[in-house]
Backbone:
């Protein structure tokens, strides 16, 4: 009986989560990148390399970083405020500078987000922050997180990545044997 139960749990470990939301939730619960997230990232990297256009990996990284920001913001702990600020500034640098790192379907949202991130950087960084405050132009962390949530749910972000994960699942991927053994331990 014990071997039947262990065989069933081993086989369920070898099947990927049914959708992107479940994959991300499992990863967050574990606190570490899951073997399936690693496999999906590897698949995205391979597709980017094969096509010569690096958008899949970038988009997945944005989703993961945005979820970290949402989680920290929801915790609302003062000791994590600095980490939250740093992650928001990092998102601006990596995905929302003048280049099109993360393309949004809603151009107005992209512009509001880029302006808000620029204003936020000014609010939290040195003399520019003081000038913005004096002019009455301040962007709160809550407002930025709200804009990031809109961007996260944008069809060119969530829907695109969810469809990409669905295609990944249709290929019936399998974990490498080492990953299976490590996930059991």
Residues:
């Amino acid at each position: 009986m014990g071997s039947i139960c262990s065989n069933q749990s081993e086989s369920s470990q070898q099947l990927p989560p049914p959708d992107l939301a479940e994959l991300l939730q499992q990863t967050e619960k574990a606190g570490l990148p899951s073997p399936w997230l690693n496999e999906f990232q590897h698949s995205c990297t391979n597709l980017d390399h094969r096509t010569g256009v690096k958008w899949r990996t970038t988009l997945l990284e944005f989703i993961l970083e945005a979820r970290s920001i949402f989680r920290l913001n929801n915790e609302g702990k003062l000791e994590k405020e600095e980490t939250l600020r740093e992650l928001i500034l990092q998102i601006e640098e990596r995905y929302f500078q003048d280049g099109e790192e993360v393309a949004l379907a809603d151009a107005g949202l992209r512009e509001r987000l880029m302006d808000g991130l620029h204003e936020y950087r000014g609010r939290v960084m040195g003399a520019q922050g003081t000038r913005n405050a004096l002019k009455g132009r301040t962007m709160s962390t809550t407002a930025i997180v709200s804009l990031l949530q809109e961007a996260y749910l944008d069809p060119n972000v969530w829907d695109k990545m969810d469809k990409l994960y669905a295609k990944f699942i249709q290929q019936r991927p399998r974990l490498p044997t080492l990953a299976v053994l490590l996930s059991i331990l």
